[in-house]
Design a protein that fits this description.
The complex is a heterodimer of chains A (174) and B (389).
Chain A lengths: L1 H22 L3 H21 L3 H24 L17 H22 L12 H10 L3 H35 L1
Helix pairs in contact in A: 1-2, 2-3
Chain B lengths: L2 H36 L26 H11 L10 H19 L26 H9 L1 H12 L3 H32 L4 H6 L11 H17 L11 H4 L9 H26 L14 H23 L5 H29 L4 H26 L13
Classes of the chains: A mainly alpha (174), B mainly alpha (389).
Chain lengths: 174, 389
């Protein structure tokens, strides 16, 4: 009973947050609404006894992705947020059609055919199991991902450095 | 939902909500007194028990000052700038306080009354297996509040403070987490209570070479994470008026202040759990309630060091701040993970080996720190004077 109430509260908050994030014209408000959505999603994970995923949801999506979005907005001209320009969305009809098609043909059969247990089974301790799985069968995947992320990081630094050097050269010429 | 569960939850959470804010009031008094003594002043000494002679025998060293401050804050006018985003201006102080309060639940504080109602001993309000990760995740939310305040105030200085805060907190979170990884590696658990229990019998992690290094890194990053001096760039008074809370007055300002101190308590509490043995100390075996006392005493010792540093060190420059996090603390903490892995594989009780490990790891850390320092030092040429020869 308590779990059901919690689920519905979190679900309603999540849907409302997502709607506000899409509909608000103020970009900063939109980002914070998106963060509310992420937070309630983390609550849903916690309800499913997936502690680690809940924590990572907060850590990665709110702590990193959300703040990255804020940084990106700060670099645009819409910093102040009181932008009166109308955001016209042309493709709402086809978007709606695509959403319905995906829901009916992809998600609904998956939900119906999935053999879900009635109650979530706790894995004790879940983080330990996850860590062992990461070290035993999935170690190559983990390492490849780490390499990819490192390459992306170095690439970003290199790109930023190159741009700065070019600017310095230009300023020297002028 | 039965009644017992509700009572258990209340017993676990209400003391946290009562004890830490009252400690906050006491800490502000200590801080003002200590800073005053460092700067050769007297500090607050007038406010005592109400309706007695001010400055007389009942002033109790100015212990009434926090209460007077609180009353003053409550009655101050709440000013919101004209162009401000009113909703976010209101939400920011609340968002600053909630994560700080929430995080206190993850500390394995065992109050003497925790075993009164429930069968389980030792109420940690949220007994999660991955408490340490949750701690870092939720502490990170503080950044958002600071940014929110800076953005909603519609003030250049506030926004600059907010941007500085984001950059600083995001950067220093990485060495903070990486220095905690070392402890998690050795214990093999993310549960705060397990980590505290693993350090019984004076086997505190700060007494190991990797633990000492990690503790220093953790403490420096914690200072930066809570915007304490010398890392108080987001609120640098001499540059940004008051940074992100320039436009805040009255009780909203008090909430920011409270949130800052509560997160100081929380992060010191995590440092105590990770490195200083949690509630361990002399006499705990005989009197279990001493554990909570020891825990709070250790937190206060760390906070005293924070106050001392605030009175001693000048503020960093922005480029120094960023360079220190990315070019110094990050490589050192990664190296520390390697060193701790090697010592874990040695697993020797032989004092000679332990001493060797100490000397070797400290030497490695010293050499690398020196090298990084040399590498990072900008090549400053002697200043050229154009006109004043």
């Amino acid at each position: 009973m308590t779990q059901e109430i919690t689920f519905w509260v979190l679900a309603v908050i999540a849907v409302l947050g997502a709607l506000v994030a899409v509909r608000r014209r103020n970009l900063i408000h939109g980002v914070f609404a998106l963060m509310i959505f992420f937070a309630s999603l983390s609550g849903l994970f916690l309800l499913l006894l997936a502690e680690f995923i809940a924590a990572v949801q907060i850590l990665v999506y709110i702590g990193a992705v959300g703040i990255l979005l804020l940084f990106a907005i700060m670099l645009t001209e819409r910093v102040t947020g009181d932008d009166a320009r109308r955001v016209t969305s042309r493709g709402w009809f086809w978007g709606l059609v695509a959403t319905i098609v995906i829901f009916v043909y992809l998600l609904l059969p998956a939900i119906q055919e999935a053999n879900l247990p009635e109650t979530a089974q706790p894995i004790k301790p879940s983080v330990e199991a996850l860590g062992k799985k990461l070290m035993n069968p999935y170690v190559v995947t983990l390492e490849v991902l780490a390499l990819l992320l490192t390459a992306a990081l170095i690439g970003a630094v290199a790109a930023a450095q190159g741009a700065r050097e070019n600017k310095e050269e230009q300023s020297d010429d002028s | 939902m039965n009644l017992n569960l509700i009572i258990d939850i209340l017993i676990a959470t209400v003391p946290l909500l009562v004890i830490f804010p009252s400690l906050f009031a006491f800490t502000t008094w200590i801080e003002r007194k200590a800073l005053a003594r460092i700067q050769n002043r007297i500090g607050p000494n007038k406010v005592g028990i109400p309706c007695t002679r001010a400055g007389g025998s009942f002033s109790l060293f100015g212990l009434g000052q926090p209460a007077a401050d609180g009353i003053k804050m409550l009655f101050k006018e709440d000013i919101v700038p004209t162009g401000a985003d009113r909703l976010f201006h209101l939400l920011a102080p609340i968002l600053a306080l909630i994560p700080a309060m929430l995080v206190l639940c993850f500390l394995p504080l065992e109050f003497p009354w925790s075993g009164l109602m429930s069968a389980k001993s030792g109420v940690q309000a949220f007994l999660l297996d991955s408490a340490v990760i949750f701690f870092f995740a939720i502490t990170g939310l503080n950044t958002l509040a600071v940014f929110m305040a800076g953005w909603a105030s519609r003030n250049k200085y506030s926004l600059l403070g907010g941007m500085r805060a984001i950059a600083q907190m995001v950067s220093y979170e990485i060495p903070l987490v990486l220095s905690a990884v070392v402890v998690v590696m050795h214990v093999g658990s993310l549960n705060a209570a397990d980590i505290a229990n693993a350090q019984e019998n004076w086997r505190w992690f700060v007494f190991t070479p990797w633990g000492l290094a990690a503790f220093v890194i953790f403490f420096i990053s914690a200072l930066a994470e809570t915007n304490r001096s010398p890392f108080d760039l987001p609120e640098a008074e001499s540059e940004l008026i008051a940074g992100y809370f320039t436009e805040y007055s009255g009780f909203k300002f008090a909430l920011f202040f409270l949130g800052e101190y509560i997160s100081m308590f929380a992060i010191s509490g995590l440092a105590v759990v990770l490195f200083l043995g949690g509630g361990a100390g002399p006499g705990v075996g005989a009197l279990p309630w001493l554990a909570a006392v020891w825990f709070l005493a250790k937190i206060f010792a760390l906070i005293a060091v924070m106050i001392w540093l605030r009175g001693t060190l000048p503020r960093l420059r922005v480029d120094q701040l960023m360079g220190f996090a990315w070019k110094f603390l990050l490589p050192i903490s990664i190296l520390n993970i390697f060193i701790s892995g090697i010592t874990w594989h040695l697993k020797s009780q032989n004092p000679v080996v332990i001493a060797g490990v100490w000397v070797a790891s400290l030497m490695i850390l010293y050499v690398v720190a020196k090298g990084l320092n040399k590498l990072n030092r900008a090549d400053v040429k002697p200043r050229e004077y154009k006109y004043a020869e």
